[in-house]
Amino acid sequence: MTRSLQWIGVAALLLVPFAGLGNYPLHLIILCLLWGFVYTGWALMGRLGLTSLGHGAFLGIGAYVVVMGWNHFNLSPWFGIPIALALTAVVALLIGYPCFRLKIVGHYFALVTMALSEVARMIIVALRDQTGGSLGATPSTALADTSWSLVALQFSSKVVWFYIILAFWLAGLWVWTRVDRSMARLALEAISQEEEAAASIGIGVTRLKLGITVVSALMTCMGGVLYAQYQQYVNPESVAGITVSLQMVFGAIAGGMFVRLGPTVGAVFTLLLAETLRLRLGHDIHGLDVMIYGLLLVLFIIFMPKGILGELTRLWEKRHRAKPSPAAA
């Protein structure tokens, strides 16, 4: 029954562009799927006790490497994407290996990764002659005489982008499912509870932590690539730094990082919240969105640690356990 519902849900999503919603609602759905993919990547680490505040760096690497490669070297995104993924893997290993070897865990690990996120943002700003600095950059258009360019991975149709990002979102859910059903998840949960005890029974602590960190970082990097190519504009505030990192943490926790669709629910929640704040308050109060994200994050951690979807799932299961079966009646 569950598998049937999954296929029905996928079929319904495939028909969304034909529902006559208009460009703006379709744009919001695309962003929900895109950020749902990114938040799912972060949740792979977060749900296993590895709280990273540095994923903004990986998002920024994906966005800026592809855009700068195209703008300055006429390098197609088809070649820029492997370079961005390789650089992301190297950065993840350089940060993760010493932290895991030296047993830097908990809030200390979060502080290290937060520093990485801010360093990435500051590098982008400092290289203003190449990156545009805080003003951001726009990929050179290849759509002057056509509506799409496969070489530049640029498409004017939102329908095309919907199906591209939908495919990556489904792939992200598949990765999440594979990790959730693997023995590595059980080992990582044991490590998060008692690292010394896990190591004493032969679990490769450093290797497993590095593995899940690299997978999570690569998914986030790919999310940065998709964001840059879809939005056709990047700036350090939107794809790097502590702000976007906190947005990932808040989205995953708010939706429910222990449930497969939880990060996507968190993406819908954060996007609707951001759009509401933008329409109601505009940009008159600088930093208001970050302050509200932080406040809501604290409230979710205290009162709803399983997130929106996690709490709904718990209530649904509790209701069905309490309901007597016909045979028992």
Can you give keywords for this protein?
329 residues, 74% helix, globular, mainly alpha
Bulk shape:
globular
C-alpha-based Rg, rounded:
21 Å
Number of helical runs? 15
Unreliable spans are none
In which range does the helix fraction lie?
A: over 70%
The arrangement of helices and strands along the chain is HHHHHHEEHHHHHHHHH
Alpha-carbon distance between the two ends: 25 Å
In what range is the share of β-strand residues? Answer: under 5%
Q: So what's the oligomer here?
A: single chain
In the sheet with the most strands, the strands line up as: 1-2
Largest sheet: 2 strands, antiparallel
Number of strands: 2
Helix/strand-derived category reads mainly alpha
Averaging pLDDT over every residue, what do you get? 89
Fold and architecture overview:
The chain has 329 residues and is an all-alpha fold. It has a domain at 22-139 and 148-239. 74% of the residues lie in helices and 1% in strands. The protein has helices spanning 2-14, 23-46, 55-73, 77-101, 106-126, 128-131, 158-180, 183-193, 195-200, 205-231, 236-239, 242-255, 262-281, 288-303, 307-322; strands at 148-149, 154-155. The protein has a two-stranded antiparallel sheet with strand order 1-2. A hairpin with a 4-residue loop joins strand 1 (148-149) and strand 2. Helix 12 crosses helix 13 (262-281). The radius of gyration is 21 Å and the shape is globular. It starts with a helix and ends in a 7-residue tail after the last helix. The model has no long low-confidence stretch (mean pLDDT 89).
